[in-house]
Each structure stands twice: as structure tokens, then as C-alpha cells.
Amino acid sequence: MSKFSFLKTQVQFKISLKTRIYFENQIKSCDINKNIKNKSRGASSLDFSIFEMNTIFVEYQYKFSTQLRVRYGETDQMGYCYYGNYAEFLEVGRVEALRALGLSYRSLEEKNIMLPVAEFTIKYHAPAQYDDLLTIATTITKITAARILFDYTITNESGSTICTAHTTLVFVDKANKKPMQAPEEFLRLIAPYAK
Question: Please, which residues have CB within 8 angstroms of residue 184's CB and are 6 or more apart in sequence?
């Protein structure tokens, strides 16, 4: 059995009413009238079944910026920040963005939820140098049932773009090492930032 075969099982998934649901093959808006639970009581959530969890996603616009300074040990012989360090810089941006949202990596790990990186792409625009103060702007752009996507822009003090990057992380159950649904607590915290 494939480790992603669980994606085809039926699950209940709650999303704020203002969230639009996008499908990868075609864009559709949820039929709100058919899916609102407890409409008479003014509930503000949708309740629907997802059979193909890997094809459905919600777009977000949650942004957070943090800063760090390039240390001498992070530079190469040319005086530029070594390219391999940027993955760590992105991790700092990601961890601090989640912390500012109200969810720390530590709290996830205490609940046996891991977030390994499944995809990482980066484009370098200009070199960072020793003692540069870098701003890491991190945006959560999309969440599927088991994945979270981040976009990043790193700039220096003069506002020049150093690099742009993208990562995809997967929510994984620490016990069985299999992908799992994004935790409800996280979905609740990120819901106000839905597009």
C-alpha cells in the first residue's frame, strides 16, 4: 500500500465560510447553500467530505517578516553568504512565522506531528555579504489536507532582493511516519488569512 493511499479516504474537513476552495484541475467555488451546517444558528463553517485530499487546497495570504544578520562563519572566500545557508534562513522565517501565528514547532512535535520539507526551490538574485541585515518575508500561500506551502523573499537593508524561494512541507505522524491531515488548531489559526 502506498504511503499516500490514505489520501483517498473520506475525512471531514472544516474551513471558514469566507474560504474559497480550489481544485487543481478546475476552479470551483463550494456550494455554500448545500454545505452550511446549523445555518439557522449562524454557523460560519463548511463541512464536506474529501475523497481526493491531494487535489483540494485552500489559498492563504498570511505574511510575517523576521530579521537576521549574516555572520562571518556563514560567508565563503568571496565574502558572500554561502548559498547552502539560505535553507537555514528560510527555516528561521518559517518557524518564526508559525510562532507569530500562535503555533510553535515545539508544540507540534509534542503532539507527535512532524513537518519535513518535501520540496525546496530557490532563485538567487544578488549575494548577501558579511554583516548584512537580512529581512526574511515568509508567506503561507496554500494548504492542502496534508501539506503547507511557503513563499519567501529575502532582502537586504537597502531593499535589494537577495533571493526568492518556495518550500512545501508535509504534516507527518511521528509514530507511523505517514502523512496526516493538518491539525485543526492550525487550520483555526490560519482561517482568517484565507483568500
Answer: 14
Question: Is the distance from CB of 147 to CB of 171 less than 8 angstroms?
Answer: yes
As given in the structure block, the three cell numbers for residue 143 are: 494548504
Instruction: Determine the number of helices (DSSP H) and then strands (DSSP E) in the chain.
Output: 4, 11
In 3D space, the residue among 131, 141, 194, 187 whose CA is nearest the CA of residue 164 turns out to be 141
Beta-strand relationship, 113-114 and 45-50: unpaired
| Strand-pair partners of 27 | 22
Distance CA 9, CA 166 (A): 28
pTM as predicted:
0.72
Is the confidence at residue 148, as pLDDT, over 70?
yes
Domain ranges in the chain are 5-50, 58-193
| Alpha helix (H) residue ranges in the chain | 32-35, 86-101, 105-110, 184-190
| CATH architecture, range 58-193 | Roll (3.10)
